[in-house]
UniProtKB/TrEMBL annotation:
Protein's UniProt name: YaaC family protein
Pfam family, one: YaaC
Domain of life: Bacteria
InterPro entries named in the record: YaaC-like
Length: 318
């Protein structure tokens, strides 16, 4: 049923044999995830990277408008690790593979909050992906995650790229209009970024926040990067890769790939990081990321595989 809503309307989902393959991918993804949760940080990144890779196969086949079989997917990772700079590279003429297929599997993005629901159009972002080669560091990627915002600022001394976002019904009797309220009253993204993310929409400032008025009928024209945390709260992300809009699951794919490459190819340096022999800030930031990743990744996977929007209720410590 999931595939029937994302692929060619002339086809009726995927056959049972293909569904069985995806079920095995999900089973492997879960077992690797559990092994990563139980394992020490010395080997955790490798388990989590191959876990998110296994889950990605299913997300690609079930969401991509052009993919109907795992066997037709390119066998490479779809991005490149740059060891000298400790960065990842993707897009442009980089080899296609799991990451590029995962990114391309979301031509639209569903935003859902308190009864307000709309889709963003990511087609131009996908076109930009294949015409722009991009490099990304661990720090840049961590600064884009809602759960890392305060910790990132504390550990690095730099502000994160994440700002609280609330979407409310505006008082407009002529049409259904939503107000996108960006900021927490004390810190704001640059106005240039907001204008680029909401092209052609009215932008004002009120109570230390940017207020963007968006008619509901034009919500798909928004070019903003919007993530949600484990509780379902929305955040506006100051996008360093514009015009490419990376779904949050892609950020975690990239981070786990970089961390797993450091672990595999530089075990001595990785050991120094997790044993707090390089920088206590780096060690704490790394541990904090994996703690939050293990708490959130299954929610993200389910959000990207179904119509459900699972969240962690306030007071739930599991």
């Amino acid at each position: 049923m999931r595939k029937q809503t994302s692929g060619d309307s002339k086809k009726s989902g995927i056959p049972e044999a293909e569904a069985a393959k995806l079920k095995n991918c999900f089973g492997q993804g879960r077992e690797l995830y559990l092994a990563g949760c139980r394992g020490s940080l010395m080997v955790k990144p490798l388990n989590h990277f191959y876990s998110v890779t296994a889950y990605s196969y299913g997300m690609i086949v079930l969401n991509s408008p052009v993919r109907y079989s795992k066997d037709n997917l390119p066998s490479s990772h779809g991005m490149v690790y740059l060891p000298d700079a400790v960065q990842c590279q993707f897009g442009g003429d980089s080899p296609t593979g799991t990451f590029s297929e995962l990114f391309s599997s979301f031509p639209t993005d569903l935003i859902n909050l308190k009864g307000i629901e709309f889709h963003q159009d990511f087609r131009e972002s996908i076109k930009a992906f294949y015409s722009h080669r991009v490099k990304a560091s661990i720090g840049t990627l961590l600064s884009m995650l809602p759960e890392m915002a305060e910790y990132y600022a504390l550990m690095t001394g730099r502000r994160s790229r994440v700002f609280p976002l609330d979407v409310v019904n505006a008082n407009n009797p002529r049409m259904l209009t939503w107000e996108f309220q960006i900021g927490d009253g004390t810190s704001l993204p640059t106005r240039e970024v907001v204008e680029r993310s909401f092209p052609g929409f009215e932008i004002t400032e009120r109570f230390g926040k940017y207020i963007v008025s968006v008619p509901a009928t034009k919500a798909s024209e928004i070019d903003a990067l919007i993530y949600s945390d484990v509780r379902g709260r929305l955040y506006f992300v100051e996008n360093p890769f514009y015009p490419i809009l990376l779904p949050e699951i892609c950020i975690h794919f990239l981070l786990n790939h970089i961390y797993s490459c450091i672990m595999r190819y530089r075990p001595d340096e990785w050991g120094n990081v997790i044993l707090n022999e390089v920088s206590s800030d780096t060690s704490l930031l790394t541990r904090h990321y994996f703690s939050n990743y293990e708490r959130k990744i299954l929610l993200l996977v389910l959000r990207n595989l179904s119509k459900y929007m699972p969240i962690v209720e306030l007071g739930d410590t599991k």
